[in-house]
Amino acid sequence: RLFGGDILFAGGVGRWDIPGGSRKDLIEGIRRYLLPLPPETEVYPGHGRSTTIGAEREANPFLQEGRS
């Protein structure tokens, strides 16, 4: 289980439009540290419904950008 706070959501990612935020760093961090986790890893975000790493790997539009 992963208690993800405001980093990764079902179908979304955290905000990067706040002072010091960086879209590039946020997405790279998720790809580097979270997506390698097993697909069945449950993610409990700070807001909204829970999801899994596998579901977000497959369908999260923010994580699909730049991939062919």
What would you note in describing this structure?
The chain has 3 helices and 5 strands. The protein has helices at 23-34, 53-59, 61-64, and strands spanning 2-5, 8-9, 12-13, 42-45, 51-52. A hairpin with a 5-residue loop joins β4 and β5. It has one domain. The chain has a 3-stranded mixed β-sheet with strand order 1-4-5. Strands 2-3 form a two-stranded antiparallel ribbon. The protein has 68 residues and is an alpha+beta fold.
Strand order of the largest sheet: 1-4-5
- What number of structural domains do the residues give? 1
Distance between the termini: 29 Å
The major β-sheet equals: 3 strands, mixed
> What is the number of helices?
3
Order of helices and strands: EEEHEEHH
Mean pLDDT: 94
Low-confidence runs (pLDDT<50, min 5 residues)?
A: none
Topology, pairings included?
Blueprint: E1 2-5, E2 8-9, E3 12-13, H1 23-34, E4 42-45, E5 51-52, H2 53-59, H3 61-64
Parallel strand pairs: 1-4
Antiparallel strand pairs: 2-3, 4-5
Which features characterize this protein?
21% strand, single chain, 3-stranded mixed sheet, MBL_Glyoxalase_II, globular, 68 residues, two-stranded antiparallel ribbon, 3 helices, alpha+beta
